[in-house]
Design a protein that fits this description.
Helices cover 60% and strands 12% of the residues. By secondary structure, it is α/β, with parallel strands linked by helices.
Length: 192
């Protein structure tokens, strides 16, 4: 099964992706982790990304897509994968779709974890306090969430229009949310 996990910061994507990885027996591919690994390995794309990041800029969609294509070519992704942190905008969603079609691994599902904004603010503020981070004030968190919503709404619509979107309530215990995701994916798992 090939799926994308969508959700605002604090929605629990990373936590649920780790659990789904074990349940589905497919790799969890976080673009942030992938980027750090490529830079550490000194790959051609990693060196390009390192230069860009050193100058304070964001790594281009083209470089990220190249890293993803390389990652998808590895044997462990033959049975599927869980993407976390990508796509973040409509251009990335379209480019990812084209890449997956070209390599014969079309996306099965996009799972959106829905959590009310105020709960996200509380979660992130609590996490920031625990980690001693002063940059996550409720106001800055709300601004970040608004930017996320503005950029991601078209991605959600993209997957909805392609009949691949499933929305899951991200509120509750880790087990409850995990069970909801697994139940939402169960029809696809039985078919494919």
């Amino acid at each position: 099964m090939r799926l994308v996990l969508l959700g605002a910061p604090g929605s629990g994507k990373g936590t649920q992706a780790a659990r789904l990885k074990d349940h589905l027996q497919v790799p969890h591919i976080s673009t942030g982790d992938l980027l750090r690994a490529e830079v550490a390995a000194g790959s051609k794309l990693g060196l390009e990304a390192k230069e860009i990041m050193a100058s304070g800029n964001l790594v281009s969609d083209e470089i990220l897509l190249g890293m993803l294509e390389d990652r998808f070519s590895r044997d462990d992704t033959k049975g599927g994968f869980i993407l976390d942190g990508y796509p973040r905008n409509l251009a990335q969603a379209a480019a990812l779709d084209q890449l997956l079609q070209r390599i014969g691994q079309p996306m099965d599902y996009a799972v959106q974890l829905e959590v009310p904004t105020e709960m996200l603010v509380e979660r992130i503020a609590g996490r920031a306090k625990a980690e001693g981070r002063a940059d996550d004030s409720p106001e800055s968190v709300r601004r970040r969430l608004q930017v996320y919503n503005d950029q991601t709404a078209p991605v959600v619509d993209f997957y909805r229009q392609h009949g691949q979107l499933t929305v899951v309530n991200g509120v509750g215990s880790l087990d409850d949310v995990f069970t909801r995701i697994v139940e939402a994916l169960a029809p696809a798992k039985e078919i494919g």
